[in-house]
Amino acid sequence: MEKEQVKCLIIGSGPAGYTAAIYAGRANLAPVIYAGLQPGGQLTTTTDVENFPGYPQGIGGPELMEDLRKQAERFGADIRYGVATKADLSKQPYTITIDDEKEIEAQTLIIATGATAKYLGLDDEKKYAGMGVSACATCDGFFYRKKTVAVVGGGDTACEEAIYLAGLASKVYLIVRKPYLRASKVMQERVLNNEKIEVLFEHNAVGLYGEDGVEGVHLVKRLGEADEQRYDLPIDGFFLAIGHKPNSDIFKPYLDTDETGYIITESGTPRTKIPGVFAAGDVADPHYRQAITAAASGCMAAIEVERYLQSL
Ligand code: NDP
Predict the structure, then answer these.
(1) pLDDT at residue 182 above 80?
(2) How many whole angstroms separate alpha carbon 34 and alpha carbon 291?
(3) For a surface tag, which of 17, 199, 205, 221 has the fewest beta carbons within 10 Å of its beta carbon?
(4) Which phi and psi angles does 186 have, rounded to 5°?
């Protein structure tokens, strides 16, 4: 198998990966970055980004990622297409296999592989992507001011998103498949006491409809053991909050992860338990999951890489 040695390897090309590449490039570390399955990361699936500092008029998600890519390239980042398919972090240099055909031996590694929002798997979610379907209320909620939206999920994220959206929208339906919420007590109370939020227990969304965007959701309500009721509910926006899957599988044999798979780092830093291996962005962040927080942790990871290499 083809082998190559690099000083600083970055896996993932979202805000964390590119920001790490900008800092590592400027520090003369000749970073090599593998863009992964979705070059540019989750932001390439959104439309307008209005909360990334520095863009008073907002910026398109794909455009923002293109700017970050160019900025990383300007400082010498070697950006390549390819997916990390295997990892061996048992010894230095750390070996990452790309597309099962090439091995990179890295002195330092920044894992910035992100997390993937879970979808229900309906064809309509794809059909209306960017046209009323979103997996991020903080990103897209603003577009639904004084409108009617639905959030799917019964966990803390769904409750948090419903409460956030209730501050903007005129009405929020929370579509929950069970007869109860899984969220923490305090979040449940906030949701149930919010007059703009109506919880639809034992409901499943089975499709969406609308001419030029989402105009409503097809629902199935469970009525006892064998009975159900199907009906349509008019909405303008459909938000998924049924969990995220951190893209950490290949690193799990070597690094600590929480029960969902988020990589556990030393508090407030991107340091993992392996010296020279850092985790930045959503793959290590179950709490904030914002582009700006991912970018910040990418910056920290690159600074850590520089210090680690100096200490050798
Ligand atoms: P969770 O896994 O906790 O909840 C997912 C929710 O989505 C559940 O209600 C689940 O239903 C529902 N769901 C999953 N798949 C489907 C489906 N196919 N159709 C319909 N509903 C579905 O994920 P979260 O993202 O909410 O939370 C992840 C972790 O992060 C948790 O530990 C949470 O506590 C934590 N968190 C904490 C926050 C805070 O403290 N402020 C904020 C956000 C997250 P069911 O219950 O039936 O399985």
Answers:
(1) yes
(2) 19
(3) 221
(4) -65, -40
Tracing tokens 């993932």 back to the chain, one arrives at 12
Give yes or no for residue 158 CB within 6 A of ligand 1: yes
Kindly provide the residue ranges of all beta strands, DSSP E only, lying in 50-158, ordered along the sequence.
59-60, 78-80, 84-88, 94-98, 102-111, 115-117, 133-134, 148-152
CA distance 312 to 307: 9
Active-site option among 8, 139, 159, 299: 139
Q: Which of 8, 48, 124, 136 is catalytic?
A: 136
For residue 151, the SS3 value is strand
From-to residues of CATH 3.50.50.60 in the chain: 2-116+244-311, 119-240
The atom number, within ligand 1, closest to the CA of 180 reads 46
Can you give the pLDDT at residue 50?
83
Residue-wise pLDDT tens digits, 64-119:
999 999 999 999 999 999 999 999 999 999 999 999 999 999 999 999 999 998 99
**pLDDT, position 31:** 98
For residue 120, how far is its CA from the centre of ligand 1 (angstroms)? Answer: 13
- As beta bridge partners, residue 194 has none
Pick the CATH number of 2-116+244-311 from 1.25.40.10, 3.50.50.60, 3.40.1180.10, 2.60.40.10: 3.50.50.60
Report CA(182)–ligand 1 centroid distance (Å): 7
160 lines ligand 1 (CB under 6 A): yes
Instruction: Answer whether 177 contacts ligand 1 (Cβ < 6 A).
Output: yes
Q: Is the pLDDT higher at 235 or at 243?
A: 235
Give yes or no for residue 49 having a pLDDT over 90: no
Instruction: Compute the distance from residue 137 Cα to the ligand 1 centre, in Å.
Output: 15
